[in-house]
Amino acid sequence: MSDNQNLPAVNDQSPVVINDDSAGGYISTTIDSFTGRTVQFYSSIPDDGTAETKIKIYNAMSEATGKLVDQLNRTLVLTDLVASPIQFLSEETGELVDAVRMVVFTEDGETYTAVGKGILSSIQNIIGLFGPAPWKPGIPVTPVKKATKNGFDTTILRMVANPSKK
To answer: Which residue from 84, 110, 150, 152 lies 20 to 30 Å from 137 (Cα-Cα)?
Structure first.
């Protein structure tokens, strides 16, 4: 998948848009996966050329602190974002589904991963209102469950006016 139309736009602070197949989800088994031109990802963390920055981005994508859905009703202050297109097998249809895997960075150095339309829509709305990450000061949000009109639950990010850590 080379289309990144669902990923946030590049901001003026030169965030990283790198080709990488190690981001999780569907992994190509062809020799193309070694060229670095098969799957793109977006990072709001500017590439300053240091190994430290590259390691920070890689580790967030490979082993985030946890899942965003496990942080329900806890206030998090978002500072950065890494996003990558993935594919997963739908349990309902058995077909491959395109999605965006997001890793959010918090001001306390934690990283949380999410794949879901509710979180994606929330992040897109935050970018529309506050501009693309990095966010300084950070954006306080609380992940919450919300019922959809189809009777399912989805996780969204609720904006917090006066953050107090829970």
So the answer is: 84
